[in-house]
Write the structure tokens for this entry.
Amino acid sequence: MNDPLEGMKRLGQMILDAELARLKAIQDKMNTQKGRTAALDQQLQARSDQVNLGHDDLALTTGHDATWQTWLRTQRAASNAELAGIAAEREDQLLQARHSFGRAQAIEALQKRALSERALKISKRKAFD
């Protein structure tokens, strides 16, 4: 006997798998962006450590250090804005994945219920015969 819910279950699982794959791709993109932001922070920290050593620094005395720090802050702000956009995209995708997961779970519950009812009918028939 062909179970019509089995096809729905497979389709629901395929949709869920696709949603989870999209979520993983977004999470990977988010991790990459976090790495870029961390790299900017490391550059700022390395420069701060270098200046704090007390050596005469040409970039500092000519004002180029301030220009670089302004550039770095601008880059960091842009990186954080990009990260915020990715986070919003991730939240939207997370909702889609949750919805697909719920659908897959509901189909599975329906299938289990139908199988139980079928088994009960069969056992009642056997008991009656």
User: Anything to note?
Assistant: The two ends are 22 Å apart (CA to CA).
